[in-house]
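Action item from last meeting closed. Structure (250 res):
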């Protein structure tokens, strides 16, 4: 695995470049690529979430200092999200990798379509009570653990689409994701362990190196073209995984 360290660092760099520029899709991007390389779903999700503990922590702290965080929204997302994430990580660790792989690819395919749709269609705000936040956090945490990513595309898109202020949504969701990701990574540590350190270290180093470049990309490059590119790549790689997983063996 250490022979492929540079490859994992490159994956982490690209994923963080995307996430830093559009505020989502680190987990979806990295997990999709790892699955396409033949990494087992549980190991891919565990590695990505272990790396994300560092990236989400830094991001959440930055949003806190910038005044982009609503503590009540963080609590209502983080606590259910931690419960859902722990359940999803435990379930994924118990399932055979070859059996669950095509379903994870199918989920990532849906996430790719969601990212692409978010880029192409401007959601209409639907103001109203945010009484769905806790169930959203629970489902978001569960699916994020199962699929190795998706917290941002699912939670951010839903909250903004329902009329919440984008600034506070992005900041609060980022900070809540730190707690959810830490819970998921801890659950994987307890259940299957974190043995493939070349993947984790590569993702972390690549992400750290990409962070300053991502800030420049966010400032100079419109988010929509990048989201279209990411959504398209995720769809194509996931579709390949779905076809390979569900196609009858010769």
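Sequence:
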């Amino acid at each position: 695995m250490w022979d492929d360290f540079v490859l994992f660092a490159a994956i982490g760099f690209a994923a963080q470049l995307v996430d830093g520029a559009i505020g989502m899709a680190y987990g979806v991007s990295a997990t999709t690529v790892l699955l396409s390389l033949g990494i087992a779903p549980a190991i891919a999700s565990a590695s990505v979430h272990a790396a994300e503990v560092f990236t989400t922590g830094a991001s959440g702290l930055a949003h806190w200092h910038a005044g982009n965080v609503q503590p009540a929204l963080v609590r209502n997302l983080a606590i259910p999200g931690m419960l859902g994430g722990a359940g999803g990580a435990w379930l994924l660790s118990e399932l055979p990798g070859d059996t669950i792989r095509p379903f994870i690819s199918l989920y990532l395919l849906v996430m790719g379509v969601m990212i692409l749709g978010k880029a192409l269609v401007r959601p209409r705000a639907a103001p109203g009570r945010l009484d769905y936040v806790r169930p959203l956090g629970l489902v978001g945490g569960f699916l994020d653990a199962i699929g190795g990513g998706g917290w941002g595309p699912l939670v951010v898109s839903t909250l903004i689409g329902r009329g919440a202020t984008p600034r506070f949504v992005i900041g609060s969701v980022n900070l809540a994701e730190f707690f959810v990701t830490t819970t998921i990574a801890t659950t994987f540590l307890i259940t299957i362990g974190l043995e493939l350190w070349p993947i984790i270290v590569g993702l972390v180093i690549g992400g750290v190196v990409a962070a300053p470049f991502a800030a420049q990309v966010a400032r100079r490059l419109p988010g929509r073209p990048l989201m279209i590119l990411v959504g398209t790549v995720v769809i194509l790689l996931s579709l390949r995984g779905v076809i390979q997983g569900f196609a009858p063996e010769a």
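Note appended to the action item: The chain has a mean pLDDT of 82.
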